[in-house]
Design goal:
- By secondary structure, this protein is of the alpha/beta class.
- The protein has 2 domains: about 10-20 and about 90-210, 3-Layer(aba) Sandwich (Rossmann fold); about 25-85, DNA polymerase, domain 1.
- It has 11 helices and 7 strands.
- The chain has helices spanning about 25-35, 45-55, 60-70, 75-85, 95-100, 115-130, 135-140, 145-150, 155-170, 180-190, 205-210, and strands at about 10, 20, 90, 105-110, 140-145, 175-180, 195.
- The strands form 2 sheets. Strands 5-4-1-6-7 form a 5-stranded parallel sheet.
- The radius of gyration is 18 Å and the shape is globular.
- The two termini are about 25 Å apart.
Length: about 220
């Protein structure tokens, strides 16, 4: 007898679930570009606020670049874009088959803090390297990108918004998978079933374990 599924849907983060992220390379590139030592803990508060606003679509591409030029006025916009996009390190092509097989049993959604530059880089990369026209549309039943919905994880409002949209599609039970503990904790506080995925693990190998966790009622 086939085991009854605990979940009707899976909500995936994108970065470090499917798209590999290379923070060391990005920070190295920005450190060289701005002549300062940048890492996850040393980004100036003013720049963090610029990036936060860019992720929720409050500012334009140009205004995002100005945030870096406020630190060093002489830097070329193209260099800012290239350094920013160097965070993105590609996807495992085997995951396309994995996702398609999952869709036989679950509705699938993306919930990602993302931005215009990264979305466009990903679209070009998917077409060029994998002949995928639109990953978020071709492989998922819906997507929630922060710069479109004007909210980001782990702000509590985003989980309420997504839950409402899932309910509109008839989804009552879902699992959320994200690589950042703060985002998972934010979801759990809103009553979601959620799990932290470690980037060094392969989601295709770990998902069955995540799906066996106890479901909240």
């Amino acid at each position: 007898m086939k085991e009854t599924k605990k979940y009707q849907a899976i909500v995936f983060d994108f970065g470090n679930i499917f798209m590999k992220l290379d923070y060391p390379t990005m920070f190295k590139n920005f450190s060289e570009l701005l002549d300062m030592d940048l890492n996850m803990d040393t980004v100036p508060e003013d720049l963090l606020e610029v990036l936060r606003r860019y992720e929720i679509g409050e500012i334009t591409d140009e205004e995002m670049i100005w945030g870096f030029q406020n630190i060093k006025a002489s830097i070329d916009p193209r260099d800012v874009i290239d350094a920013w996009n160097s965070l993105l390190a590609g996807v495992n092509p085997e995951h396309f088959t994995f996702i398609n097989e999952l869709r036989n049993d679950y509705k699938l959604f993306l919930l990602s803090n993302i931005n215009g530059f990264h979305e466009r880089w990903i679209d070009r990369y998917m077409k060029r390297e994998h002949n995928v026209e639109d990953f978020k549309v071709d492989f998922f039943d819906g997507y929630f990108y922060s710069h479109y919905i004007k909210m980001r994880k782990p702000d509590p409002v985003i989980y309420d918004f997504v839950a409402e949209k899932l309910h509109e599609q008839g989804v009552e039970t879902w699992l959320f998978v994200d690589d950042m503990e703060v985002n998972v904790n934010g979801a759990i506080e809103k009553g979601w079933n959620a799990v932290v995925h470690h980037p060094e693990d392969d989601i295709a190998e770990k998902l069955d374990t995540y799906l066996k966790q106890e479901i909240k009622t």
